[in-house]
Amino acid sequence: MRRAASLAVLLLLTACSPTGCDGTPPAPDKGPPPAPGDTVGPAEPPAEPPAPETPPEPEPVDWPHDPPGGLAPGSGSGATDPTVWAAGMRFPMKAGPAYANSQVYGYGGFAAPGPGGQCDPRNYSYPWRDNFCETRSWTNGLCPAGRGHQGQDIRPATCVKKVHEVVAAESGRITSIGSYTVTLLGDSGRIYRYLHMDMPGVHALFPDAASRTVARGQTLGKVSADFGGSATTIHLHFEIKAPVDTGSGATVMFVPTYPSLVDSYGRLLNGAA
Ligand SMILES: [Zn+2]
């Protein structure tokens, strides 16, 4: 009998919580709600201001281009000097893509590597290739043979005449408009020559002496194939003449064009022409 009573007490204690015996767990005692201004718990540290977002640097745009002096096979011996003779010049076409290669040793040229016309896609593709010292009979003092091409051939984005704009490599003055050559004397003293543009279009843009002072990047004309009555392929032949110290004073002469074109085209592709 005593044992049964003890068991009942034990059961009673087991089933009941300190606040009741209905089986519901007791609500935690929260105490009175905090008065306004009271601090509850440790103060939160002030949030750090978000760091300003730094936009990722864009990857520089590059394009396949052979080194200076890397002429087309069989077309002569090139000038490998990487000197950028016209540092900071504007690429002479308004927009890319453009294709520096040979119009004589390319498809459709007099010394083509195989059958194909001037509009062959292989002429309108990379890599770029130097042709400043390409085999020609013209005097070219900085070429290994002392003779060469004097400039660089550049095809525009597409094989179409009178579409692609040619621009001033630097600010200066147009000193001559010939039957297929436009000469620009830059403010630096360098001379730039542009061959084979659409010449009626050039004359229309520069009708008189007053119009011939030009700003860097100003349109000079459009790429075509004019050649003083005959025609060549659709391309711009571009030259730079600059004073060169030959050991007995400075002589103005044709300087390798290709490194300055590589430099300026890279800036054009990267939006800093
Ligand atoms: Zn040429």
From TrEMBL:
The keyword Hydrolase applies. Residues 25-36, 43-58 have a biased composition (Pro residues). Keywords: Hydrolase, Signal. Residues 1-20 form the signal peptide. It holds the Pfam family Peptidase_M23. Residues 17-83 are annotated as: Disordered. GO terms for molecular function: hydrolase activity. Residues 148-241 form the M23ase beta-sheet core domain. This is Murein DD-endopeptidase MepM and murein hydrolase activator NlpD, contain LysM domain.
